[in-house]
């Protein structure tokens, strides 16, 4: 065995084998020009954040696909609101807390434009466009007349300057507008007094900053890397493709416009002779011949007509658009039909598979970002403010803070099959009725109260529906608990209903 063979047979665990496995670290011909800098995400955000943010905002305003994707992102992330369900054991106190919270949500917006759940939707849109949103907790005076003297003010990402990186007078570090103490905790935010792009609110020549304690600010963003301190726009991975695709579409529209400009050119051997059909001349003196519908024009000897043939879009236009928009949808993490509204190539199975994966991603953001960074601290501050204002008497404030946040319900792809599957899961003990109801976005205790109220009203009017408890809703009534019809025989109407329901289910299968 020669020297060459020994090197070639070197074990895979040696240096040569390691180099072979790290193909992405090679500097051969194909990868010679790929030399990205080894920069931290915070350095990238600090240097390119302002321009990235400006481009993202313009794109969402001017590009139809980006605007539609933004609305789809917000609608699926928060819908009509991620709502609290208090875990207080005392039913009366729990009901009091829930009712006061519901009334306060209408007063939550400091600008008075929407309610708390509308603010959630605005935060979701800001996460798509800017990657982050700041929520300032604003205590109010008693004379303001609010049920709970607390409101929320939303601040855009531009209000916190990316370039403000320095050492504060107290020795703390300020990084991208956020002040950290010696052990890395956020202690304050240095906000601008006015938006740098709002020409209608110029209080000073250069907007100065004001220090706001971190306890009064909620920074809502999705951290992609460990140690990341500012958010990145959700639309960032798709920005270049969307921008270039928009330019391509504009060019194709101009091409079609040019193609629609039908023109003919007459050539003749004797230019000085008058042309048949000549009516007027353009400003340069060239003769213009008109063409009317149904005309059979006889040309003079030596005259010939040639028509313009502008280039058309071509057969690859739609296929190219489809593939490009697929890449855009993958970059955004949104289903193709939500970005484009195109469901021509979709079917039940493909839509369901796509939505299941998309909903998993949305649930990550719902519980890990919106509920944890926004809803949970707002609930805690609201409870404390309501207690101090005398609106709530909480024996144990710590216990009162325990709450479950219920995201909006998902619409069923196939309502009948989905409901039947949930009923079977409850009957088999795989899940509870509370879990099933809360998965639809409702509070199970509220549903029970409404059912009890409806049943009492129906019984008072002598009415009876198939939704009455004991028939098709809740636990089935046993023979011992069914009312006696008065003739000495047991009432078997419930059995008839159950049998009919079984027959219908069998026929549907």
From TrEMBL:
<dbReference type="GO" id="GO:0005198">
    <property type="term" value="F:structural molecule activity"/>
</dbReference>
<dbReference type="Pfam" id="PF05136">
    <property type="entry name" value="Phage_portal_2"/>
</dbReference>
<feature type="compositionally biased region" description="Acidic residues">
    <location>
        <begin position="489"/>
        <end position="498"/>
    </location>
</feature>
<dbReference type="InterPro" id="IPR006429">
    <property type="entry name" value="Phage_lambda_portal"/>
</dbReference>
<feature type="compositionally biased region" description="Low complexity">
    <location>
        <begin position="499"/>
        <end position="509"/>
    </location>
</feature>
<feature type="region of interest" description="Disordered">
    <location>
        <begin position="448"/>
        <end position="509"/>
    </location>
</feature>
<dbReference type="GO" id="GO:0019068">
    <property type="term" value="P:virion assembly"/>
</dbReference>
<protein>
    <recommendedName>
        <fullName>Phage portal protein, lambda family</fullName>
    </recommendedName>
</protein>
């Amino acid at each position: 065995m020669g020297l060459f063979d020994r090197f070639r047979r070197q074990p895979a665990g040696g240096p040569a084998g390691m180099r072979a496995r790290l193909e992405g670290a090679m500097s051969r011909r194909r990868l010679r020009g790929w030399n990205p800098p080894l920069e931290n995400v915070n350095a990238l955000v600090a240097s390119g954040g302002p321009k990235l943010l400006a481009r993202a905002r313009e794109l969402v305003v001017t590009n139809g696909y980006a605007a539609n994707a933004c609305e789809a992102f917000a609608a699926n992330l928060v819908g009509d609101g991620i709502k609290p369900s208090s875990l207080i054991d005392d039913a009366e106190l729990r009901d009091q807390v829930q009712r006061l919270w519901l009334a306060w949500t209408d007063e939550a917006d400091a600008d008075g434009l929407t309610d708390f759940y509308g603010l959630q939707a605005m935060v979701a849109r800001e996460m798509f466009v800017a990657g982050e949103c700041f929520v300032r907790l604003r205590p109010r005076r008693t004379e303001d007349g609010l049920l709970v003297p607390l409101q929320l003010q939303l601040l855009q990402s531009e209000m916190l300057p990316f370039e403000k990186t320095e050492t504060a007078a107290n020795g703390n570090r300020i990084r991208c507008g956020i002040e950290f103490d010696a052990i890395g905790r956020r202690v304050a935010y240095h906000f601008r007094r006015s938006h740098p792009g709002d020409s209608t609110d110029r209080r000073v020549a250069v907007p100065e900053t004001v220090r706001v304690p971190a306890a009064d600010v909620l920074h809502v963003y999705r951290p992609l890397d460990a140690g990341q301190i500012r958010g990145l726009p959700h639309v960032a991975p798709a920005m270049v493709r969307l921008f270039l695709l928009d330019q391509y579409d504009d060019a194709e529209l101009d091409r079609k416009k040019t193609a629609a400009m039908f023109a003919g050119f007459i050539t003749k051997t004797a230019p000085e002779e008058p042309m048949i059909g000549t009516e007027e001349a353009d400003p340069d003196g060239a003769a213009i011949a008109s063409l009317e519908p149904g005309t059979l024009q006889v040309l003079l000897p030596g005259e010939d007509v040639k028509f313009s043939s502008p280039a058309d879009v071509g057969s690859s236009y739609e296929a190219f658009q489809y593939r490009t928009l697929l890449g855009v949808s993958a970059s955004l993490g949104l289903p193709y039909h939500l970005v484009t509204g195109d469901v021509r190539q979709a079917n039940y199975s493909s839509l369901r598979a796509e939505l299941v994966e998309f909903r998993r991603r949305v649930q990550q953001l719902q519980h890990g970002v919106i509920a944890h960074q926004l809803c949970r601290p707002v609930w805690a501050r609201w409870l404390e403010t309501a207690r101090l204002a005398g609106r709530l008497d909480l024996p144990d404030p710590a216990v009162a803070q325990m709450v479950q946040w219920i995201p909006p319900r998902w619409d069923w792809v196939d309502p009948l099959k989905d409901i039947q599957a949930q009923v079977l899961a409850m009957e088999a003990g795989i899940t509870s009725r509370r879990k099933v109801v809360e998965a639809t976005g409702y509070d199970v205790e509220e549903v029970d109260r409404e059912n009890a109220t409806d049943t009492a009203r129906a019984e008072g009017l002598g009415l009876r529906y198939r939704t009455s408890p004991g028939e098709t809703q809740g636990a089935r009534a046993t023979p011992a608990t069914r009312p006696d019809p008065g003739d000495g025989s047991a009432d078997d109407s419930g059995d008839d209903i159950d049998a009919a329901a079984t027959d219908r289910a069998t026929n549907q299968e």
